[in-house]
Design a protein that fits this description.
This protein has a single domain, classed as Glutaredoxin (3-Layer(aba) Sandwich), CATH 3.40.30.10. It is built from nine helices and four strands. Helix 4 packs across helix 8 and helix 5 crosses helix 6.
Length: 197
């Protein structure tokens, strides 16, 4: 059984879901195709999404309520308004995540980027922070940096966004199982129902 996991390394809802998703992966021994993508730059413009800073104040207000509500329910440490959101460069950490996936480190680097941004309040656009994440995960920073800048990783990052649009994915996190989309941290329950069948 295989799930395509689309996420942005800057999404608070991906962060709020990631530990529970990893638990599902381990529980049901699922194969995961991890697909970090360009949510704001590519997917939103193609699917009618609006970047956070451009949303109506009422939506912004409720978004913060919801983030804190979910964090409290699942006991996730979060700062709903972190200093470095939105990141000045969301692409470099996403490409680092793709590079680590290619070297056999699935569901680790992207997860740490989310934690660093939303819990530790660190700038994931800063190479020093990305090096710290690599060091903590015992991943060779120089090797990953070189790979992240390659044509291969750039092409995959672009393709992940194109694949998302083709599969009607419009937000993060999104999980695709048997061609059916489960969008959002609050759909993990439904995803598990499908996994039980």
């Amino acid at each position: 059984m295989k799930i395509k996991y689309y996420y942005s390394v800057a999404s608070p809802f991906a962060y709020l879901a990631v530990d529970r998703f990893v638990q599902l992966v381990e529980k049901y021994k699922i194969e995961v195709e991890e697909k970090p993508f360009d949510l704001v730059g590519k997917v939103f413009p193609s699917t009618g999404g609006t970047p956070v800073p451009k949303r109506h104040p009422s939506r912004l207000k409720y978004r913060l309520i919801e983030i804190n509500r979910i964090a409290k329910k699942y006991n996730v440490a979060i700062n709903a308004q972190p200093k470095f959101f939105p990141p000045s460069d969301p692409h470099t950490p996403a490409k680092f995540a793709i590079a680590t996936i290619k070297t056999g480190h699935s569901l680790s680097f992207g997860k740490e980027c989310l934690r660093y941004l939303w819990s530790l309040e660190k700038d994931i656009a800063d190479l020093n922070v990305l090096k710290e994440i690599c060091d903590n995960l015992k991943i060779d920073f120089d090797k990953i940096k070189t790979l992240s800048e390659s044509d291969e990783v750039n092409a995959e990052y672009k393709k992940n966004s194109e694949d998302a649009i083709k599969e009607d994915v419009f937000g993060a996190p999104s999980y695709v199982l048997n061609n059916e989309i489960y969008w959002g941290q609050d759909r993990l329950e439904y995803l598990e129902d499908a996994l039980k069948k």
